[in-house]
Amino acid sequence: xxxxxxxxxxxxxxxxxxxxxxxxxxxxxxxxxxxxxxxxxxxxxxxxxxxxxxxxxxxxxxxxxxxxxxxxxxxxxxxxxxxxxxxxxxxxxxxxxxxxxxxxxxxxxxxxxxxxxxxxxxxxxxxxxxxxxxxxxxxxxxxxxxxxxxxxxxxxxxxxxxxxxxxxxxxxxxxxxxxxxxxxxxxxxxxxxxxxxxxxxxxxxxxxxxxxxxxxxxxxxxxxxxxxxxxxxxxxxxxxxxxxxxxxxxxxx
Length: 253
What we know:
mainly alpha
């Protein structure tokens, strides 16, 4: 039962934490303009009255649901965050640290991609293998679906790293504006706290690389078959008629 609940909790955790974080930052900025219960009038007064009618438990549930919705709307995928970093030219400063695939995994994927050409008798160039490896990386979402259907234990390990990466990268990303806001209202020394979300974001990127490494190993070890790899390996082969042997058509490469 706990095993079945954990994946759902992992995916619930990130939107809720983001909602709380965004609400806290908004409260710091506009909290002084929200009237107290004794000063409230009109719509705000009716909100306070509704809380009295519904009770504290219902109010807490409603606020929690609202925070979840806010966090789910604000949530960014790793691709979106990496695109933002690319526009800021941060990957140019530390390209290996800003990559979602480790150097070892990228090398293994390229080496595996090169075998698609040698198996049919063609010698692949570095660009051919690199292009095929990039296509297989685009297939990671499909690989996840195949792992769910065929190798749930491998998928669960990948999902654990993936959920950790999603949580840390999003929290780290949205924590960055918090420290300048607090420093503005309190003391400039708190700007030093901006290193905390940077480290947290880096830890999230490391977890993302670990999650993608599982997908790469699933492809390289043959646990799942890449559609792009199979299409490239079989591109110049045609089955012969009447027997199980195969013949090779002259390559057009």
